[in-house]
Amino acid sequence: MPDLTKHLQIGAIVFPEIDQADLTGPFEVLSCLPNTTFHVLWKEMVPVRDFRGLILTPSGTFAAAPPLDLLIVPGGRGQEALMDDETVLAFIRTQSAIASYVFSICTGALLCGAAGILRGVRCTTHWSAHHLLRHFGAIPVDQRVAVDGKHISAAGVTAGLDGALRAAALLRNDRTARQIQLSLEYEPDPPFKGGSPHTADPEVLEAARAWYRPINEARLATARRVAQRLGIQINEGG
Amino acid sequence: MPDLTKHLQIGAIVFPEIDQADLTGPFEVLSCLPNTTFHVLWKEMVPVRDFRGLILTPSGTFAAAPPLDLLIVPGGRGQEALMDDETVLAFIRTQSAIASYVFSICTGALLCGAAGILRGVRCTTHWSAHHLLRHFGAIPVDQRVAVDGKHISAAGVTAGLDGALRAAALLRNDRTARQIQLSLEYEPDPPFKGGSPHTADPEVLEAARAWYRPINEARLATARRVAQRLGIQINEGG
Known about the structure:
The first copy, chain A, has 6 helices and 11 strands. With 238 residues, chain A is an alpha/beta fold. Chain A has a single domain (8-230), classed as Class I glutamine amidotransferase (GATase) domain (Rossmann fold). In chain A, helix 4 (159-171) packs antiparallel against helix 5. Chain A starts with 7 loop residues before the first strand and ends in an 8-residue tail after the last helix.
């Protein structure tokens, strides 16, 4: 049972061209946890712009961050530029070694993979990037939220809400997570079906796949390079 | 049918002690609309802190804002301090008069009410504030998202995602909204039931009601004062 009297340090990485909802969704849930400090962390104390232009401002730097109980790794376009960034990868490695949980959202899983912390870990990510997970030695699972030991991973963007409620329950308890869910009135009712590739209209899915093609080609090239660096053998046909 | 060649101006009000997800949820959906500019608007170009501490930075001021096609009015604790703020209320009145749609999230509906634009409008808000809507002449409806003419309203916090997808479909078309929903992988799967007062565990609901009691007393006193200003007769027993 978690010790409720322990003050929790939660930290999320922010970066240029992040997908802001990968951070703000989990922030909404986890900043409600009692007896907790939520840090928004980057290399420097300078505002960054998300992929669509929203300005997010760090509350602290990697260098000054306390040991975290929960490390949150969001994704978004800008993840690609960090896949060989040793400052970011070392921060993920160091903090995840001591944290109780590491929680990736969307393509944040690729950053965790590049940091080398996903070997043998059952893990999920955005549907468009799912096939890249095994380049990092992870075991891709087709789930919206996956929990494997200390690793919590959420699929694309909005799955961060579901994952964050799971994290809240793990860090505290179900009762606390349920109270947060009620206060956020999280009883979703999407106006359409088709929020995943399994349920989407084929035409809509094909248009989305075409849209992701350029970034996915870049991500695949990067994943191959990282696999080589990590010494992971991939059977690309397999 | 909406004119897809028309560039859309979308603007969301940001303010101190906003509930950040009321803004960032809809931002995530609506900033994906093609041929659109998304403005984050406040009185001044200064960063503000959300209720839980997240720093949000305006992209423009009320004074410099273009005529908006969609005005977004988020809620959160800080809404209460703006209920008699003529700068904010006048901005809501002026923009909503010309906008195609006005979209309130959570207690943003109370701000729209204070601006006097909800008379006779079927409307929803966070469950804890639902009983206050009639003080503004609105017709409260027990729905997660309500659409009445140009007025779109979402219930508490996370309902902003469902409302934003409805807004995307209204501003453009269903196909575009479906593509956005797939790219955000919005096929929610909350880990618990009980995200609304209708489904919550009675104990969890009672704890939440107790938590909201102080702010609700303040909001009721404000709603009564605003009702008087607007000349709206309320039968408090009714």
